[in-house]
């Protein structure tokens, strides 16, 4: 079959997208790299190669180090919780004999996914309001008078924004797991049942191993999503109190962007390389797993 | 007896756990709907009420908050009607949806059914971008937009949203499933390549295109980081940025705030309810993009 006659059509179909991607992604990308290695003097319109200077400055900056720690803390709170809860809940949902209940539950879990993190942040901020919010009101009614200032104190602020992130993302992971679990042939479980395996054993021995690709995928997606956490944090705490919730993205936008554009670009480059590596490793892992 | 307990405990425990989690998921929506119908004194007067009286609004038809938000008379809105934000969000979302869909279909077709030099290089470059979130490129992109003089314009906000590697990837997958024979037959009949795309390919991938439109609408509607960077004037802000700005004042007026959150969420909830099937499908096809 001679496809070459049509090669030019294929090229023209793809060309607009490639050009547009070039403008919107590759050009800024190149710009970020260029700015990260050059010191630009806007007044004299000159620039000078400074090598790794900006990266050294960023990595040695205590604010940046702190923000990386905060981000890691956030990731460690959100990602394992998401995996555990979504796996357990999808196992329960799949076990329903009536499909209807499972569908209703899945739909409810998915509702927060379609709301924006900004809206979620605002509602949860109101729920966690120290004097008027539901949480402290219920606690008071239950006789626990010691009211916490959830988003306003350095110890509880990060876990509280993590709850918001958890709430928004849970349904997404759940849908992936529910669909994957439903596609496992019933005969596997019937065979295990014959051998006298309990429900929990079946989950450990059959469901989890077969779900491996989805678990890898979900953990990568959630890792990246949590690592770039910004929206609900910026809306509720603006990175405060005293930097307790200042993730890398909040630090980048609040402390660096307006002060030192070159350093902001260096952070962008670091972030891109890091996230790209994570994605690439996952992609490699994922594509080899599927072949089995 | 012991056997019965062992048998029933996992059943009961798992149901209870599911129920608690369902309540946790629904709580914010419930709180949002109740608060939006409350007047300021109702919200602030906690001490003199019992838990139920203080949770439910006194009058369910109290639309004051919605009125204040829509007219812009709520103090935190400084005279800007919330409808301005909704309008901006609609312009930005729909305006970027059209080019994104066109580019995804043409590029998807080009990648799926043609061979040309550089195809694989192009494809893997675009695929690579699928893996990195848009936020990470926002800072240098801002410089480009600023140089083009597009800060505080709809075009500036829409710029990165007018193309979607995800959509391109999804539509390419769908087109690859169509047998080559259909295309060859149309070519033998003397049809042009673009005509084939419109009249042969497009009708066959309609569900995928609809899925993409739905998911892209929701993403763009909920986008915050980039629109926050490129908009300064209230008149140009989309819903998320408008909401965030007015919740950041020192004094939080939760009545109007929850009313405006409801106005923000309703379009997305409606879309979700009517296209649940498509959304779930898109996630299971590829759980890409967070």
Give a quick precis of the structure:
The complex is a heterodimer of chains A (292) and B (290). With 292 residues, chain A is an all-alpha fold.
Explained architecture:
The complex is a heterodimer of chains A (292) and B (290). Chain A has 292 residues and is mostly helical. Chain A has 13 helices and 2 strands. Chain A has helices at residues 7-37, 53-60, 62-94, 99-114, 117-127, 134-141, 154-182, 186-194, 199-210, 212-227, 231-236, 248-256, 261-290, and strands spanning 38-41, 46-49. In chain A, strands 1-2 form a two-stranded antiparallel ribbon. In chain A, helix 1 packs across helix 13 and helix 7 (154-182) packs antiparallel against helix 10. Chain A starts with 6 loop residues before the first helix and ends with a helix. Chain B is mainly alpha-helical and 290 residues long. Chain B folds into 2 domains: 2-67, no CATH class; 76-285, MetI-like fold, CATH 1.10.3720.10. Chain B is built from 16 helices and no strands. Chain B has helices at 2-36, 40-44, 51-55, 64-71, 82-113, 119-131, 138-147, 154-158, 165-176, 180-188, 193-204, 206-222, 225-230, 239-247, 254-274, 276-285. In chain B, helix 12 packs across helix 16 (276-285). The radius of gyration of chain B is 25 Å and the shape is globular. The model of chain B has no long low-confidence stretch (mean pLDDT 84). The chains are: A mainly alpha (292), B mainly alpha (290). At the A-B interface, helix 1, helix 3, helix 4, helix 5 and helix 6 of A face helix 1, helix 3, helix 5, helix 6 and helix 7 of B.
